[in-house]
Amino acid sequence: MAKYQGRSGGGGRILLSYDKKYIVKTSCPEEVEQMHHILKPYHQYIVENHGQTVLPQYLAVYRLTVEGGETYIIVMRHLFSQNLPVHKLYDLKGSTVDRQATDKEKAKEFTVYKDNDFIEDGIKIQIGSEAKERFVSKLTRDVEFLTKLHLMDYSLVVGMHDCQRAKCELESLQDDVEEDCEEEADDTENEVIAKSTPPATPSPKSATEGQAFNFDLEFHPEEDVYGIQSKCDSCEEIYFLALVEVLTEYNAQKWTAHAMKTVKHGTGAEISTVGPEQYSRRFLEFVTKLIE
Predict the structure, then answer these.
(1) Position 122 pLDDT exceeds 90
(2) What is the pTM for the complete model shown?
């Protein structure tokens, strides 16, 4: 297991496996109960659509008991690529009330931006008409499925890989590696001359440090199942588009939150806490407009 990635919208800790294939997320009992509730229709839906979906790919659920304390963890397929870094990340709900990254969030090493940030940045997801039709068709099916299960408050994650920026970063990294290897070689040579003795057998570490740096920047659609290449003359990007946080049911607690936000912001405000039918319509309309 590798790196701590932060927290989910529900407050769970998110970890990324060492090989970057899997996400492991801690979860609350209510979320796990909801997963058990939808597991049968979820499995049937995935099979009937031959895996053509942007829903999370759930792989396992575990309960860990340590000194009487219970922790639930959910294992999912990673949304992004194993080899292509994401340069900018958005979490979109189709709502504009309190949907922008705060100054505190922007000060973090990697910021998750939101709906208003996306609009203010003037971004369009440029994938061409055919790819747009295929994606919107999948997304619509998925959203209709979630609506039937009375689920809402999900997000579309948009991870953006800038191909030109990645090439520049790789070239810079290769230059740094070559420079480090040259400096180490000079240091070793000076040490050998000073001692007037042949060098010892190189360790496995030093024997590989002088090799060319190898990093794959190719897009592999058979592995990067949430990825779509851009169709744009002025930019070259890979978009990773996936639904996340899909286990929130519209219950009495959410209805109360909806009533309180309506009083605060007014009946016409685009608040995120609305019923599943209204949420799905607004969400699809918002996302569809962002894609070209």
Answers:
(1) yes
(2) 0.80
